[in-house]
Amino acid sequence: MVNFNGELLANAAILSCENRGYKYGDALFETIKVNNGKPMYWEDHYFRLMASMRILRMEIPMNFTMDFLESEILKTLQANGLSQKIARVRLTVDRGEGGTYLPISKRINFSISCSLLNKPHYAFNESEACEVDIFKDYFINEGLLSTLKTNNKITNVLGSIYAQENDLDNCLLLNNNKNVVESLNGNIFLVQGDNIKTPPLSDGCLKGIMRQQIIGILNKHEKFNLEESSISTFELQKADELFYTNVIKGIVPITHYRKKNYKSQVSQELLNILNAKIES
Fold first, then answer.
1. What are 33-63's pLDDT values in tens digits?
2. d(Cα 14, Cα 128) in Å, to the nearest integer?
3. Is the pLDDT of residue 280 over 80?
4. CATH of 131-279, one of 3.20.10.10, 3.30.590.20, 3.50.50.60, 3.40.50.300
5. Which among 157, 145, 68, 155 has a CA at the least distance from the CA of 112?
6. Which top CATH class is 2-116?
7. pTM score above 0.90
8. Angle at Cα 89 formed by Cα 88 and Cα 91, nearest 5°?
């Protein structure tokens, strides 16, 4: 069952070909991990969505409160038998139908879909390989729009196809200055000794929810020094560790980049802190 503007519908086509999210990518979405009926980091997701809607000049409906949207998420989970399970939820908002580039209405649609996940806690198998390379065909633009979770993700789509064609587990994306911005599905962190770097939002990386959580952990950690600064491709060969983050998987250590092999000790330490924070 899919929730479309508060109405639960069978999992079938509910959008017309005139929908602006379909025609122009005029839409935003949040991917949320739900643990036994509790949307994780819900407040962060909600405020990112509201801020993104304002940036895209979407008129926020009066009923789009944090409580309302959470209740709609829980209603959708219940309809799909996932109220007490681990689930992945996608909340999408779009500008309805009509118009060409210029909308003819200020109407906002929302839709919610969900699917089952297996792991309640964040974990990774240290023996599992994650081999990456750089996707060079297209670049991420620097600027505010690239930090938003919009439906315009064609670079990520093409990078994913490239990774599959070349037997890679993921790819790293570059911006127009040839700096590393992020992975195909998460924010990137580079570890060298006790120093950890992640690209600044001004480089064009996604304003990730898990990125925000890891930055918060590192800012309070006595051992590590966090720096939000550009990462060049040359630094990848010198790093001790490399990992990416997202709300579904938490922290994913990268094990191989070309001829370089990476450790995962810092990744594991941060993962333990993250899980302890969730349980507290």
1. 999 999 999 999 999 999 999 999 999 999 9
2. 39
3. no
4. 3.20.10.10
5. 68
6. alpha beta
7. yes
8. 155
